[in-house]
Amino acid sequence: MHKCLYLLCPTDCLESVINEKYKNENYFYTSLGNSFAYDNDTIKHIKDTVYKNNIRNIYFILSIDNQIILDALGRQDFSHIRRLSSFYDEINHQKKYVKMSWRKGNIQFSVLSYYLNKKIKELNAVLNLSSNPIKIYGKIYNRHYDIFSNIYSGLIYLEKHHLN
After folding, report:
1. What is the pLDDT of residues 54-78, one digit of tens each?
2. Number of C-alpha atoms within 13 angstroms, CB side, residue 152?
3. Three-class secondary structure assignment of the chain
4. DSSP for residue 54
5. Which of 2, 6, 32, 141 shows the smallest number of beta carbons within 10 Å?
6. What's the mean per-residue pLDDT of the chain?
7. Per residue in 109-157, pLDDT tens?
């Protein structure tokens, strides 16, 4: 039986959906919009959970209709919540890039893919689990169709670099 850790936003309420679709031994860690900080306590908790339970796969999952993401892309009613203002800035910054580079497609899916790719890259860097290789994936849940879709590859997103 596979053991998986799912990093979710509590506003998506996906725990029961995941347990129903994926009959694994599932573990969950939640933070608003998957915006958790990579502080020592959080990383220690994630590492301890991974080692203690022999977890091999970690999934960042957000719903396409995630209330935090929709708010960040729209009215920003929750921007006053601690730690969300920089998260909102990041989402809006990426929204501008997506609008410039994509002619067709779902902007929300593109922004979520970029964001989850970034979170995967950051988590890989801080976990440093070379002795216990872990695969980290990103998925976007569509409630209307009841499907989990793989995020767009990180290879399609360009990052700005400045050379002095």
Report:
1. 999 999 999 999 988 888 888 888 7
2. 17
3. CCEEEEEECHHHCCHHHHHHHCCCEEEEEECHHHCCCCCHHHHHHHHHHHHHCCCCEEEEEEECCCHHHHHHHCCCCCCCCCCHHHHHHHHHHHHHHHHHHCCCCCHHHHHHHHHHHHHHHHHHHHHCCCCCCCEEEEEEEECCCCEEEECCCHHHCCCCCCCC
4. T
5. 2
6. 85
7. 888 998 899 899 999 888 876 666 789 999 999 999 999 999 988 655 4
What is the reported pTM? 0.86
Map residue 91 onto helix, strand or coil. helix
